[in-house]
């Protein structure tokens, strides 16, 4: 397994009472991300300390391929379907500089 080169992390505040429906829609439209050949994985996480806060993480082979996806119509459709649930959101992007396996062995 090789280390992903680029990671995107979204922090989303979901309108109160819409959390369950948001999770369903995220699952139903996820292929827009995971079917992209440069995508290495896509995760939805719910905060245990902040009500209505979710984190969405995705790994990409590199920043350029993520940026191409970000400007695509597939991404636009994906965003449009999730937008009604969103109260606010922030995005962080980062280059992965290390990846340790359970045994402590570094990959990549």
UniProtKB/TrEMBL annotation:
This is Antibiotic biosynthesis monooxygenase. Residues 6-94 form the ABM domain. Keywords: Monooxygenase, Oxidoreductase. It holds the Pfam family ABM. One of its GO terms (molecular function) is monooxygenase activity. SUPFAM superfamilies: Dimeric alpha+beta barrel. PROSITE patterns: ABM (PS51725). It comes from the Bacteria. The keyword DNA-binding does not apply.
